[in-house]
Design a protein that fits this description.
Strand order of the largest sheet: 2-1-5-4-3
Strand content: 15-25%
Structural class: alpha+beta
Shape: elongated
Number of strands: 22
Number of helices: 23
Helix content: 40-55%
Length: about 700
């Protein structure tokens, strides 16, 4: 007889052997309780060994509907020594701790332990195998039906015949007795029944066909109408409460419809009727949907084949052209995505602004220290002022690139402005660069922001100077172009434009560099020698002005930048002489209504206006401003309003004031507004933020 320690050792070795098994192993006593089970059983059924041992196995892994049969089989074995499933391999349904039922493969044998019979069950989860078998069977059915449809498509050009065969195939697959096909001709907005049916001809089907013929189908009406409207499969039951089932009382319990999308103007709807009201299982729906997709491809292929016969002998060339267009479109998309490099933009902005803020913060801290000599105080104040100007310039360059700069367009002669820029560029380039001027349009007028135009040309010139390393030849030219030629990333644009070109003899650029030069903060220069925003400003100005900028370059030979702007009409003499001879009007004390939602900015504007000798009152939004004007219509001389505010914007406020108080002067101020950038100033004066005392003084002068 084994000692207690020997017995425990024997049990431990037995469990170790059980835990090496690949299947779930369950040991059950003759009374139906679990004697032991291994780790695979724990994973399979969710019960730990401690939870399972000594509990009735039926309560753990046998679904309720099978427990009576299990009890009867166990009782029979205990009475006769025979069991219906001993030493056999069978498939049954088992139960997990979570309540999920799973298919398992079971084999049972009986052994003796401790003087009593013990059932040893080997169980294997066969969910994956059965699912694979079902998938393979479904795929086999699909393959057979798809083969039939594909062969039919190869043999016929009749869409009606393909649809009829599709109805038959799906009815065979699903067991649905009746199928019907409709086709929507979208360019005429009509729903035309092809009157293609599949099903056993009887009185019920005849009544269904007649009802279908007399019902006026439209989007959203009935089953096909809902499929047409939603573009999604629909399951509809014939119940008393379901008014959407318009073909009631014909003996069909439910109907199923799904769309088939073909090319061109046609949209097919296949609908099926069944006597049962049980929706199809998801796998069956997946199969039907797959078949529907294939039918759609057949539909499209047959239509394409019909169209192919109408193509002429130039088809191959047209395919080549279309392929080139697609490749070009992909390049354009890729370039547009690169231009939206938010990460690079954010990092560059943070870097540059942190540098500027460091100067301002340090200067302020030094000014706060006790007694600061007047000379140093002036130097610190100059540093703050200069840094603020640099920050404003940086913001303006960013807005220009993003095409969000509030431009001040006016009609001007390009030849005159190019001459002005020529004089500035000559100083910029230095004596070792030869500058040539070639203007081939004595009167080339455009409508654009003069300041941004000059800045763009100077930015191009600065880029050329660096590319030539201070020595070479730069040619500045202007001419009339009948169109903007197609470039690597855009199509040609028709219409007269003025083309301003700048060609240099620098080192040139590779294609990779050319694809990035207009991205903000991209630069090939050494650290500290360029912000990477100059050409971004050129790009943004050109696009926002309705034009474009193109670049051609060859490594080792040089680069040509061409700025295209839409050609404008020559301004009339009256326009050019407008305002001539008017002298500066004397200073006048004003009462200004300041409209600003930012408290700190508003209070500072009030203080600044007071320092300039004017009276001012603050309104935090447009509603408060209108209320003040209603209450005191003759008190205020002008309204000084921010553009971007909660609720009514500054432009909307200005329009309302212009409508109700036409004589009231309105001046807008903004650091950025997409409305101003896209639509202009709407006739209002604009003071850009950040503004200086001189700038504010200028707009306060009587108009």
């Amino acid at each position: 007889m084994l000692s207690s320690d020997q017995t425990q050792d024997h049990v431990s070795r037995l469990r170790a052997i059980l835990d090496t098994a690949l299947d779930a192993v369950v040991l059950m006593r003759a009374d139906g309780t679990v004697a032991d089970w291994n780790k695979v059983a724990e994973r399979t059924f969710g019960w730990s060994r401690e939870e399972a041992v000594d509990r009735y196995m039926a309560d753990l892994i046998i679904p309720p509907q099978y427990r009576e049969a299990h009890s009867q089989g166990l009782e029979r074995y205990n009475r006769t020594g025979e069991g219906p499933v001993l030493d056999q391999r069978i498939e049954i349904t088992a139960l997990r701790k979570s309540g999920e039922e799973i298919p398992v493969e079971l084999s049972i044998t009986v052994t003796r332990a401790g003087g009593e019979d013990v059932f040893v069950g080997f169980l294997r989860d066969i969910s994956v195998r059965l699912n694979s078998q079902r998938v393979l069977a479904r795929q086999a059915r699909e393959a057979e039906l798809l083969f039939r449809l594909t062969r039919l498509a190869a043999e016929t050009e009749s869409i009606d015949e393909v649809l009829r065969s599709s109805l038959q195939a799906i009815c065979e697959l699903t067991g649905w007795p009746v199928g019907h096909a409709l086709v929507v001709t979208q360019d005429r907005g009509e729903l035309v029944s092809t009157d293609i049916w599949h099903g056993e001809e009887d009185e019920r089907l005849a009544a269904l066909r007649e009802r279908t013929r007399t019902v006026p189908f439209a989007a959203g009406v009935g089953l096909p109408g809902q499929v047409l409207q939603t573009g999604e499969p629909q399951w509809m039951e014939d119940t008393a409460k379901n008014s959407s089932f318009i073909r009631k009382g014909l003996g069909y319990g439910a109907a199923f419809g799904f769309p088939i999308r073909g090319s061109g103007r046609d949209f097919a709807v296949l609908e099926f009727f069944t006597h049962e009201r049980t929706p199809p299982d998801p796998e069956l729906l997946l199969t039907v949907r797959t078949l529907g997709d294939q039918v759609g491809r057949v539909f499209e292929r047959n239509r394409s084949l019909a169209e192919l016969r109408q193509l002429n002998e130039t088809l191959e060339q047209r395919v080549v052209e279309r392929t080139a267009e697609l490749l070009q479109a992909q390049d354009q998309l890729r370039q547009a995505q690169k231009m939206e490099a938010i990460g690079q933009l954010t990092g560059g902005v943070a870097h540059d602004f942190n540098n500027l803020l460091t100067i301002i913060r340090s200067s302020v801290d030094l000014l706060r220290r006790g007694e600061v000599p007047e000379e140093r105080k002036r130097r610190y104040l100059d540093a703050i002022s200069d840094t603020a100007d640099r920050a404003a310039k940086l913001t303006a360059q960013l807005l220009a690139f993003a095409r969000r700069q509030a431009l001040k367009p006016e009609v001007f002669d390009v030849a005159e402005r190019v001459q002005v820029v020529y004089d500035m560029v000559r100083t910029l380039l230095g004596s070792r660069v030869t500058l040539e001027l070639d203007i081939d349009c004595p009167e080339c007028f455009v409508e654009a922001d003069i300041g941004q135009f000059e800045t763009a040309l100077i930015n191009i010139a600065a880029n050329a100077r660096d590319a030539m390393e201070g020595q070479g030849r730069l040619c500045l030219s202007a001419r009339v172009a009948q169109h903007i030629p197609a470039g690597p990333w855009h199509e040609a644009v028709e219409g007269e434009h003025v083309a301003i070109s700048m060609s240099d003899t620098g080192r040139g650029m590779t294609r990779d560099v050319m694809e990035q030069i207009f991205e903000p903060f991209f630069t090939t220069k050494d650290v500290g020698k360029g912000t990477g925003l100059g050409l971004s400003q050129v790009y943004g100005f050109a696009k926002q002005s309705g034009g474009d900028v193109q670049v051609e370059s060859e490594v080792g030979k040089g680069t040509v930048f061409t700025l295209y702007l839409p050609k404008a009409e020559r301004p009339s003499t009256e326009d050019r002489d407008l305002g001539a001879g008017e002298g500066e009007k004397p200073w006048q004390r004003l009462c200004v209504l300041v409209v600003e939602d930012n408290k700190e900015v508003g209070e500072f504007a009030i203080q600044l206006l007071g320092e300039l000798g004017h009276d001012a009152r603050l309104a935090v939004d447009a509603d408060q401003a209108l209320a003040a004007l209603e209450e005191h219509p003759t008190t205020f001389d002008m309204v000084f309003s921010d553009v971007v505010m909660p609720g009514m914007s500054g432009i909307e406020l200005g329009r309302e004031i212009r409508k109700r108080w036409p004589a009231m002067r309105v001046v807008l101020t903004s650091g950025y507004s997409h409305i101003l950038a896209q639509e202009g100033r709407h006739g209002f004066e604009l003071l850009q933020k950040p503004y200086s005392v001189e700038g504010l003084t200028g707009v306060l002068r009587p108009s």
